[in-house]
Amino acid sequence: MNILDCGIPVKRGLDLSKTKREDAIGIHRRIHASCSNGYFQFGSGRLICQSNGEWKYNIHCEDRAWTGGRYETKKMYFIWSESGEKVNYTNWNPPNPDIYRNQEHFIQMLDCGRWNDNNCNQKLPYICEKKFNV
C-alpha cells in the first residue's frame, strides 16, 4: 500500500478523483479541520492553518500520538476502536506491549513510528480513523 501526499491509501480500484482529501490522514500529511475537534498539542509539534482552510499537523520524532488502538481485555488482543477489527500489523517498541499493572490498554505511537501501550491519562495528538467508501 502506498501513501499519497494527502494520506489516502492507494488501492487497486479506488478512484482517487472521487475521494476527498479529508477522507484519510497521515503523519506529515494534511488533516481535515473536522478531525481537530478535541485536539491536544504537545511537544514540538504544531498545528497550522493553511490558506485553503485545511489543517496540517507536523509530528516530529520526539512527539507521541494516540493511534486509536486499544486492548480488548476479554479477547486478550488489541483492536481498532472505530472498526472493532483486530490489530494485525504491529510495530511495538520492545518490551511492549506489556499491559503494565493491567493499566496500559491504549496504543500510542512514539519514536518515529514505534508503538507503546499506555494508560489514557495523557493529552496527546491523535491520528483519526475514518471509513470511506471504495
From TrEMBL:
InterPro entries (alphabetical): C-type_lectin-like (IPR001304), C-type_lectin-like/link_sf (IPR016186), C-type_lectin/snaclec_domain (IPR050111), CTDL_fold (IPR016187), Sushi/SCR/CCP_sf (IPR035976), Sushi_SCR_CCP_dom (IPR000436)
Cited SUPFAM superfamilies: C-type lectin-like (SSF56436), Complement control module/SCR domain (SSF57535)
Pfam families cross-referenced by the UniProt entry: Lectin_C, Sushi
Disulfide links within the chain: 6-49
Entry superkingdom: Eukaryota
Keywords: Disulfide bond, Signal, Sushi
Protein name: Lectin subunit alpha
Species name: Magallana gigas
The organism's taxonomic lineage, starting at the top: Eukaryota, Metazoa, Spiralia, Lophotrochozoa, Mollusca
